[in-house]
Amino acid sequence: MKSPVVKRSIVIAGHKTSVSLEDAFWEALKEIASGRRLTLSDLVATIDSGRSQGNLSSAIRLFVLDHYRGAATQARAQAAGERLQVSSPPVA
C-alpha cells in the first residue's frame, strides 16, 4: 500500500530541505500562499522561523489547521451577525 505522505524538496532561507506532508496539506499550503501572494518557499520560511519546537512537517500541519480553523470561526461569526441583523426588530 502506497503512503499518502509525499516528500518534497523546498528552499528555505537559501538552503534546501525536504518536507514530508500528505497531498491535502501540500494543496492547502499552496492555496494559503497564493491567497497571501507569497511563494510556497516564503510561506514555509515564515512557518519555520515562527516554530518553537517540533519538526517542520508538524509545524506546517498545525499552521494549515490553524488557518482553516480561523477561517471557519470567522465565517460562523459573520453568519451569526447576519442572522442577528435579519432577526432584529427595526429601531423606531
TrEMBL record:
Domain Ribbon-helix-helix: 6-68
Protein name: Ribbon-helix-helix domain-containing protein
Organism, scientific name: Xanthobacter aminoxidans
